[in-house]
Amino acid sequence: MKWFEQAEEAERRQDGDTAITWVSAHAECSSDASDRHGSHLWHLDLLARADRLPELAERATTCVHARRRLNRALRERGMEAALRERADDGDRHALYVLLRLLGEAGRIEEARRVVEEVDPDNAYARKVVADHGAPESGTR
Q: What are 61-72's pLDDT values in tens digits?
């Protein structure tokens, strides 16, 4: 059985630690080899699904893929305060994820306040809020 088959089998058994061990040995963020890069993304996803957020957060300090996967994991868990903290620390992706989360919950005014407090000159952040505050097309 090949390593990735063993990792897939571990996933099926819901043995995240074993799957992570197999995949991490073949993961490389900045590799030109697509299989190594794909393993890197798989590894990050496994960390998130195994609730190993501190490990993912550590990797997020140097890896954009880990930062994005961490932000998505925080969103999936409804961890607004953690997203806000990351946004306050300068993570623009966390800001955008938080704004979308607030917008989808209909909390547009709160989203506007977040933009004003975190990054008032960020045109994209304002657009994210505006897109969620606009009525659906075809409705009045």
A: 999 999 999 999
